[in-house]
Design a protein that fits this description.
Blueprint lengths: L4 H14 L3 E4 L2 H8 L9 E5 L5 E5 L11 E5 L10 H15 L6 E4 L20 H6 L5 E4 L1 H8 L4 H24 L6 H18 L6 E9 L23 E10 L2 E10 L5 H19 L7 H14 L11 E3 L6 E6 L12 E4 L2 E4 L3 E4 L2 E5 L4 E3 L9
Parallel strand pairs: 1-5, 3-4, 5-6
Antiparallel strand pairs: 1-2, 2-3, 7-8, 8-9, 10-11, 12-15, 13-14, 15-16
């Protein structure tokens, strides 16, 4: 793993604008962004001064993930014989680091208003640090919210980040292919989901050289595809039937970088009515992607997509935004592709384009791909076939 100086420069530019002398990051995905370390507990920190190298701080009971950071500090965890207040122990180490770097006063940036946390490698649980308690332990320093600084820095991807995102997409295609070939009558949603997640996690490590991987496959079928835009729908015991539409929402993370794709296929051959739905959504996506250029308003791209759906007569079935940013989290705030978005498309942005239509009478169809915005337009990062044959 190598140091990505462009990422650090973007963050430090933001620190200078905000007059922040040192950044103290506690949000797991921001720790990955700043250090490369994909930590699990949610109890790790990165101290990034304006000048000098960052410091990675972890509890003693956490395995050290791969990182390019050379200055790694440990704080004590609970043992068989002694309880330990993790926040108190961590704050002591943080203050030691600050003093070691000659920072005895000034403004520290902390993500005080961070809202959405992406899962860590532990999956089932991780700690969310109470920032009020943390900042109270940093008496003598001025505290400033650095949340927006990090959101903005992460919105433009570096060359190394794009490579990592393309790797995550290649791994995700293992799941898309497994989904496609698993569709047959009488198999259950949960069996399809399990096959997808198992194939991804196995091949990611053994074939694609991943150190750590997460795979979350949500499979919904038949009439319930009309609810396919809602969180965690599907993965039930329902068994697929001939001509069922089947939707896969697939989120994959490979060594800290994400992929977020959706495919809707059919058990057997699609009917004429189903084909009309697929054609509308596919045209909506491709037309919107073709319109992406530097400086174009994200709201305009979303409107173009909606207009195509409207021309096909399905606009009453629109339910959600067209897209979102993606990087060390599968959902990042910039850019937001929505008719009310204020964002402008810029080279280096990576985001989803995911038109969908949903209704009780028609079921649901969504096609979601990840694209990279360039100086001349947008190019697909995810490549798997988008419509059923």
């Amino acid at each position: 793993m190598v140091r990505d100086e462009k990422k650090l420069s973007r963050v430090r530019d933001g620190m200078r604008r905000e007059q922040i002398q040192v950044l103290l990051s506690h949000v797991p995905e921001n720790i990955t962004y700043l250090s490369g370390a994909w930590c699990g507990h949610g109890m790790s920190y990165v101290v990034l001064p304006l000048e000098g190298d960052p410091v990675l701080i972890l509890p003693t009971d956490e395995w050290l993930p791969e990182t390019w950071v050379s200055d790694i500090r440990r704080y004590p965890s609970e043992t068989n014989q002694h309880f330990c207040d993790a926040l108190d122990a961590a704050s002591k180490t943080i203050k030691e680091v600050l003093l070691d770097r000659g920072i005895s006063s000034g403004t520290i940036g902390v993500e005080q208003s961070w809202g959405l946390y992406f899962a860590t490698t532990m999956q089932y649980q991780f700690h969310i640090i109470n920032t009020d308690s943390l900042t109270r332990k940093l008496a003598g320093y001025s505290i400033k919210d650095s949340s927006q600084l990090m959101v903005t820095a992460r919105s433009i991807k570096t060359h190394d980040e794009v490579k990592a995102l393309k790797k995550a997409s290649r791994v995700a295609e293992v799941g898309l292919e497994t989904f496609h070939r698993s569709l047959r009558p009488n198999i259950s949603e949960i069996e399809v989901s399990n096959r997808i997640e198992n194939e991804i996690t196995t091949q990611a490590v053994l074939k694609h050289g991943a150190k750590r991987v997460l795979a979350c496959a949500f499979v919904v079928s038949g009439p319930m595809t009309a609810e396919g835009y809602k969180d965690t729908v599907g993965n039930t015991r329902r068994r697929l039937k001939l001509h069922d539409p089947v939707m896969l929402e697939l989120i994959v993370a490979v060594d800290g970088y994400s992929s977020d794709t959706t495919r809707t296929f059919v058990v057997g051959k699609p009917t004429k009515k189903q084909r009309a739905l697929f054609d509308a959504v596919h045209e909506s996506q491709s037309t919107a992607i073709s319109a992406i250029k530097p400086g174009v308003r994200a709201a305009e791209i979303a409107t173009i997509s909606n207009d195509v759906i409207r021309q096909h007569g399905f606009d009453q079935y629109l339910a959600h935004r067209l897209g979102h940013g993606l990087g060390v989290s599968p959902h990042e705030a910039i850019p937001t592709l929505h008719v009310e978005s204020k964002d402008l498309m810029q080279p280096g942005m990576v985001h989803s384009v995911e038109p969908g239509i949903y209704g009780a009478k028609i079921g649901g169809v969504r096609i979601e791909d990840i694209v990279l915005d360039t100086e001349t337009g947008a190019e697909y990062i995810s490549e798997y076939p988008r419509v059923p044959e």
